[in-house]
């Protein structure tokens, strides 16, 4: 009579069932868009630049992308920045960088961050679709302006009576 022996092997480590942190870059709209040339338009190609910015503005990782660009390009010259990142052109990122002459103090052109009325105006001036945080900030500002106007009217009417 023969007996078959099964060798049982046991691992001394717990099974690796924990999830991994997701790299935000994989969640970017550009990572799933087949035409990645869209994000690297010629400086003179305004139409493609606008299209890329429009896509960025509805990207779920816009702010993370913008922050990563700011960290990676800190202090770089305008010519060393490439492509549209976080909805900003190389020139806009350069102008917003506090480590460049353009971004410093008085003479610099700091870009207002999204979620402000100034950034809403910038979107409109650049012929872009304002993002949701900017649209919210703009609506709040409108409500505030109307309330101030109402208050002024009431005060004037009272003092005239
Ligand atoms: S914000 Fe634009 S460049 Fe950044 S990950 Fe999203 S689509 Fe890509």
Give me some keywords for this one.
single chain; mainly alpha; binds iron/sulfur cluster
Structural class: mainly alpha
Compute the CA-based radius of gyration.
Answer: 26 Å
Number of domains: 2
Global outline? extended
Distance between the termini: 117 Å
Give average pLDDT, whole number. 83
Record field, number of beta strands: 0
Q: What is the multimeric organization of the chains shown?
A: single chain
Largest sheet: none
Q: Number of helix segments? A: 5
Question: Uncertain segments of ≥5 residues (pLDDT<50)?
Answer: none
The ligands found in this model are:
iron/sulfur cluster
Strand content: under 5%
Which bin fits the share of residues in helices?
40-55%
Write down the secondary-structure element order. Answer: HHHHH
Describe this structure in words.
- The protein has 161 residues and is an all-alpha fold.
- It folds into two domains: 23-107, no CATH class; 112-161.
- The protein is 43% helix and 0% strand.
- It has helices spanning 46-57, 62-73, 90-96, 117-125, 132-160.
- Helix 4 crosses helix 5 (132-160).
- The longest helix is centred in the C-terminal third of the chain and has 29 residues, at 132-160.
- The termini are far apart.
- The mean pLDDT is 83.
- Bound molecules: iron/sulfur cluster (SF4).
- Iron/sulfur cluster is lined by residues 28-30, 39, 55-56, 59, 61-62, 65, 84-87.
Topology:
Blueprint: H1 46-57, H2 62-73, H3 90-96, H4 117-125, H5 132-160
The structure holds iron/sulfur cluster.
Iron/sulfur cluster (SF4) binds next to helix 1 and helix 2.
């Amino acid at each position: 009579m023969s007996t078959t022996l099964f060798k049982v092997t046991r691992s001394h480590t717990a099974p690796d069932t924990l999830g991994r942190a997701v790299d935000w870059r994989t969640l970017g709209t550009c990572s799933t868009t087949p035409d990645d040339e869209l994000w690297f338009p010629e400086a003179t190609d305004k139409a493609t630049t606008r299209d890329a910015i429009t896509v960025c503005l509805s990207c779920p990782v816009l702010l993370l992308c913008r922050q990563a660009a700011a960290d990676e390009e800190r202090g770089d010259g305008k010519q060393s920045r490439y492509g549209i990142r976080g909805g900003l052109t190389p020139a806009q990122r350069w102008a917003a960088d506090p480590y460049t002459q353009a971004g410093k103090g008085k003479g610099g052109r700091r870009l207002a961050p999204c979620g402000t009325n100034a950034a809403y105006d910038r979107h409109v001036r650049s012929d872009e679709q304002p993002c949701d945080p900017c649209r919210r900030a703009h609506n709040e500002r409108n409500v505030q302006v109307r309330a101030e106007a109402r208050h002024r009217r009431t005060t004037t009417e009272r003092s005239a009576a």
